[in-house]
């Protein structure tokens, strides 16, 4: 291969080839990238080889299992994401001059954020900007960060956790609430004003999938391992099992409606990690589009009354 020639790159490489290369990096197979971009695999291979020739450097490391970006390929992929992000920002800003605030806005969030906070606020945003088409995705924390960093979501809302890799996103604080312990009425722990995680370990702890990592980390700090007998996907199911006497659970306080408080007992969780901090994620280094900025402004302008509780914990 020759040396990198900027002029050749500008004159000979089209945006579709750049997008195809990025798909190959993300899919780790040229064949899958070809399917994603709806072209023949042989054509995809030829385009990427031509791109390497023009760049004058190997961009993909090939093996029988697929491809991974070379160090130079990683640099190119990073700049391609910036290019396509800027193109979308340009399209949105120009459209705002002639069309008003409209377009498509993809929001990724966890159920534990949608239910108590985000659903209501998205409804208000939709009424204020009826020409903006909202695309909503319910994902877990790590998937939210992944979707935003890859440009598959314009904005993501997630609960902070030590194990999350935030290298591809910019983060803005949004809200916080408290995790509390929910036990059946008459349970021995119900006489306590607060309990520690160590005191919960002997109990049948009904765990929601999204909390499993935090519980295992807390157990390791105590020198033990945590494997729940009951592991479910939603707070609503966990709380119903507690009501049936099958164990205890830890949930965000905002999930506990007043009607539910008459059927279970709620206890403070005396742990530093019991404060759940929720953040807004946007793609790193990209200026948010006008619609994204409008939604962020609305979210950040909302009153922060964390004592508000909601009856729907499905």
Automatic annotation (TrEMBL):
Domain HTH lysR-type as annotated: residue spans: 18-70
Gene3D superfamilies documented for this protein: 3.40.190.290, Winged helix-like DNA-binding domain superfamily/Winged helix DNA-binding domain
Entry keywords, A to Z: DNA-binding, Transcription, Transcription regulation
Keyword field contains Transcription: yes
InterPro entries per UniProt: HTH-type_LysR_regulators, LysR_HTH_N, LysR_subst-bd, WH-like_DNA-bd_sf, WH_DNA-bd_sf
Gene Ontology terms for molecular function: DNA binding; DNA-binding transcription factor activity
UniProt GO cellular component terms: cytosol
PROSITE patterns: HTH_LYSR
Family the entry assigns: Belongs to the LysR transcriptional regulatory family.
PANTHER family on file: HTH-TYPE TRANSCRIPTIONAL REGULATOR YBHD, LYSR FAMILY TRANSCRIPTIONAL REGULATOR
Protein name per UniProt: LysR family transcriptional regulator
Organism encoding this protein: Caballeronia novacaledonica
Lineage, highest ranks first: Bacteria, Pseudomonadati, Pseudomonadota, Betaproteobacteria, Burkholderiales
């Amino acid at each position: 291969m020759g040396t990198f020639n900027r002029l050749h790159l500008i004159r000979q490489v089209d945006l579709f080839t750049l997008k195809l290369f990025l798909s190959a990096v993300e899919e780790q197979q040229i064949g899958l990238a070809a399917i994603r971009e709806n072209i023949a695999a042989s054509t995809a291979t030829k385009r990427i080889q031509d791109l390497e020739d023009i760049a004058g450097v190997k961009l993909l490391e090939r093996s029988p299992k697929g491809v991974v970006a070379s160090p130079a390929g990683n640099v190119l992929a990073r700049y391609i994401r910036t290019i396509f992000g800027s193109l979308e920002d340009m399209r949105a800003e120009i459209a705002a001059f002639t069309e008003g605030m409209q377009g498509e806005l993809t929001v990724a969030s966890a159920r534990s954020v949608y239910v108590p906070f985000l659903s209501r606020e998205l409804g208000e945003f939709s009424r204020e900007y009826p020409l903006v088409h909202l695309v909503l995705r319910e994902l877990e924390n790590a998937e939210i960060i992944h979707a935003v960093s890859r440009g598959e979501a314009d904005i993501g809302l997630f609960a902070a956790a030590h194990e999350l890799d935030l290298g591809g996103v910019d983060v803005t604080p949004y809200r916080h609430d408290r995790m509390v312990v929910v036990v059946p009425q008459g349970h021995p722990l119900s006489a306590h004003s607060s309990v520690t995680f160590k005191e919960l370990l002997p109990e049948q702890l009904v765990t929601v999938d999204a909390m499993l990592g935090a519980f295992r980390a807390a157990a390791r700090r105590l020198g033990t391992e945590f494997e729940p007998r009951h592991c479910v996907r939603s707070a609503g199911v966990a709380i119903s099992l507690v009501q049936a006497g099958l164990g205890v659970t830890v949930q965000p306080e905002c999930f506990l409606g007043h009607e539910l408080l008459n059927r279970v007992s709620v206890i403070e969780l005396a742990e530093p990690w019991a404060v759940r901090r929720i953040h807004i994620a946007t793609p790193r280094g990209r200026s948010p589009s006008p619609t994204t900025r409008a939604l962020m402004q609305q979210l950040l302008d909302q009153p922060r009354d964390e004592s508000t509780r909601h009856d729907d914990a499905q």
